[in-house]
Amino acid sequence: MRRITIALLVIVIFVVFGGFVTAEYIYFEGERIHPRVGPVIIDGEPQITLVDITNYLGKDLSWSFVGQRVVGHIDRNSFSLYSPTVVNGHLMVPLDFLRDVLGLYVYWDQQERRIIINRVIYIDDPAPKRGIILGLETDRDFYRVGEPIAASLVVLNRSQEKARLTFSSSQEFDIVLSRGGREIWRWSDDRAFLQVRKTKELGPLDFWQFPVVIPTSGHVYLTSGIYTLEGILKTRDEPLYSNKVQIEIRR
Fold it and tell me: Which domains are delineated in the chain?
């Protein structure tokens, strides 16, 4: 799968101050999961089981004690922790470890007692507006004539504040396929939308995903060549645009 911008990973962990607890809610790409050990609050800061995170990321974890510290590997990358916390044989790590070692976005909402973790792959698009990033990805780089194209537009709020987005109708997004600057297909064509203004909230480090399947046969027939896809968030004041993705259609 082409990973242009955002690989979809969301983990939400609710924590309670004062010791060991079991997380109430953890979600990985929309699926509820449960950690081996609930978060630990040490000096007011949460720590969570490293093996749960590395498993979600599909990475291998190994570690062992060397004196008073832990030395380990995540895939081929080494790390060490001094005075580590181990609960029931599971290594706990602070949130800074997830940021610095695994490159994750982490937000601790103390009021709601939850931690939000997102995995983000950086893009070269212009600076985001209102903390919002749009990323478009496809399942492949090229397709045979007649094969459908699976695309997904992801909208991420990378700030630590809620984002309020207003739309002038029930249409929230669009995806456009073009060739040589000429529009070939648009997702919103032949669709009806309610002309009613609405406002939606996107939480800190949270995201929306809009999956689309683009037909390449029938009334939309794509011949061999290079095509460009672009996603649009149809916000009322000013639409926001994603990165452009080039795909190839082959015979």
Answer: 10-118 (no CATH), 132-250 (2.60.40.2360)
